[in-house]
Amino acid sequence: MNPYISIIIPAYNEAGKIKDTLENVIDIKEINEVVVVDDGSSDDTAKIASSVKSDKIKVFKLEKNSGKGYALNYGLKIAMKNADIIGFLDGDLGSSSNEVKKLIKPILDNEADVIIAKFPPAKKKGGLGFVKGLAKQSVLDMTGVELDATLSGQRIFKKEVLEKFDEIPFGYGVEVGMTIDILKKGYTIKEVLVNMTHSETGRDLKGFIHRGKQYYHIKKVLKEKQKEWR
């Protein structure tokens, strides 16, 4: 019997890309369910997601914007009921969401407990690498494992891994916090190169503010993890 695979897509103001993202995952035969959690969007994200014709799609709209970690936890409550394997995908992947197939195969082949998507280099200049460097070095320092895609939100998990979490960490440090916990609990992670693309932050004020928040949240999560695992 084939494992039941559920994909959770947290989405905030992704009206421009959510349809494309969904249309390119629903025809992947291994995927049984796609749980879209609209994180209090002010646009038509939920409405557009609901318009995509597929019995696989379940759309939930939160009353207010509560952050990616909250949306993932909400989606997990639904996905954990039936799923053997659970994936996280961002809502802004567009047609490149189809690349999730490359993450599903190695988890089905039991190559690791968690598969993380490794993106190609960014097309436009973003930050100065502080956030990515902090994330990579912190995971290495705390676990002894060197990973390149510690910030990637595109991940596939065996259910047993997620069952070890009372809840997903909140804020922009969610991926780093989870990666540390997963490795510390003795599970294995494999990175797989994909041709995924998503909205990139540039070297403008908005981009620097975003990376500043990321940096702050990652530092905060690291402090928590250092206390938990010392």
In CATH terms, what is the architecture?
Alpha-Beta Complex
CATH fold-level topology: Spore Coat Polysaccharide Biosynthesis Protein SpsA, Chain A
Q: Let me know the average pLDDT.
A: 90
From the spread of the alpha carbons, the general shape counts as globular
Strand order of the largest sheet: 3-2-1-4-6-5-7
Strand content: 15-25%
Task: Please give the alpha-carbon distance between the first and last residues.
Answer: 42 Å
Keywords: Glycosyltransferase, Magnesium, Transferase
Family: Belongs to the glycosyltransferase 2 family.
InterPro entries: Glyco_trans_2-like, Glycosyltransferase_2, Nucleotide-diphossugar_trans
Cofactor: Mg(2+)
Fold and architecture overview:
By secondary structure, this protein is an alpha/beta fold. It has helices spanning about 20-25, 45-50, 70-80, 100-110, 130-145, 160, 175-185, 205-230; strands at about 5-10, 30-40, 55-60, 85-90, 115-120, 155-160, 190-195. Strands 3-2-1-4-6-5-7 form a 7-stranded mixed beta sheet, sandwiched between helices. Helix 5 runs parallel beside helix 7, helix 5 (about 130-145) runs parallel beside helix 8 (about 205-230) and helix 7 runs parallel beside helix 8 (about 205-230). The longest helix is centred in the C-terminal third of the chain and has 25 residues, at about 205-230. The N and C termini lie far apart (about 40 Å). The mean pLDDT is about 90.
Structure characteristics:
8 helices, Spore Coat Polysaccharide Biosynthesis Protein SpsA, Chain A, 7 strands, 230 residues, 38% helix
